[in-house]
Design brief:
mainly alpha, 2 domains, Methane Monooxygenase Hydroxylase, Chain G, domain 1, 81% helix
């Protein structure tokens, strides 16, 4: 009985300490993200996972940050390693809660990045996963802006398939679900209405408007985008691309 009482006492002491450690690490990670230091933030979220491996918020942020860092990596092997880690984190998060909107969105996001990195059958598989997990995210939360953005990107890419990609999709999966440029724009606009600071959404929305022969709307979107604050480490480069695009349209 004394032994059992000692164990209970130790647990009562350790749990609050671990909780405090996690709270401190979360606060530090958020500060690192605000400072646009994603590598430091990723390492802090990883420390949280060392304490609590099933923390779904840390798993999701690790997936998103690993994908973002990998997207900027010039070395192809390191890029693939970051993307593999991002996929593993998102899959682990879905094991914790398969209905979590952020976890499903993270899985859709890394599928999008991997689709850009591969070709042929692998690309088609990742494009299919983009829609699958974006849809699941939106089923859990219809106003999840990042998932709306990814669904818009899926419509943009699939509606632009050439003959070879259409044939590959048909041979492998019997074709892709119906996609259209109008639905891409609708999804991008809805995401923008919910999250007015999602820079990448503005850029791809502008590209969709250009492709839809609505340059005046693209110019308006880009003018708004370049005035947005930087919230991610990718934002300065995205805004620079937007400025270059804007110059070409004016």
């Amino acid at each position: 009985m004394r032994f059992l009482a000692s164990i209970v006492f130790l647990i009562s002491i350790i749990q609050p300490v671990l909780g405090q450690d996690q709270n401190d690490l979360f606060q530090q990670a958020k500060k690192s993200e605000i400072a646009l230091n994603e590598t430091e933030a990723l390492n802090l979220y990883r420390q949280i996972l060392n304490i609590q491996p099933t923390n779904i918020v840390a798993l999701t942020r690790c997936s998103e940050l690993a994908g973002s860092i990998g997207g900027r990596e010039k070395d192809e092997q390191k890029k693939q390693e970051y993307f593999d880690a991002a996929q593993t984190y998102s899959e682990t998060a879905l094991q914790v809660n398969p209905n979590d909107p952020a976890a499903n969105c993270a899985r859709a996001a890394i599928a999008s990045r991997l689709a850009d990195l591969h070709s042929g059958k692998e690309r088609m598989e990742y494009i299919r996963d983009m829609k699958k997990y974006a849809d699941l995210s939106l089923q859990a939360d219809p106003r999840y802006a990042k998932a709306l953005y990814i669904l818009g990107k899926w419509h943009f890419e699939v509606s632009g398939f050439g003959g070879v990609e259409k044939t590959a999709a048909k041979l492998l999966y019997g074709g892709m679900p119906a996609a259209s440029l109008d639905l891409a724009i609708e999804n991008f606009e809805e995401a923008r209405a919910i999250d007015q600071f999602l820079v990448i959404d503005y850029l791809d929305l502008a590209k969709a408007y250009v492709k839809n022969h609505k340059s005046d709307k693209a110019i308006d979107v880009l003018n708004k985008m370049i005035r947005l604050p930087n919230r991610t480490q990718d934002d300065p480069a995205l805004k620079a691309e937007g400025k270059k695009m804007l110059a070409g349209l004016q």
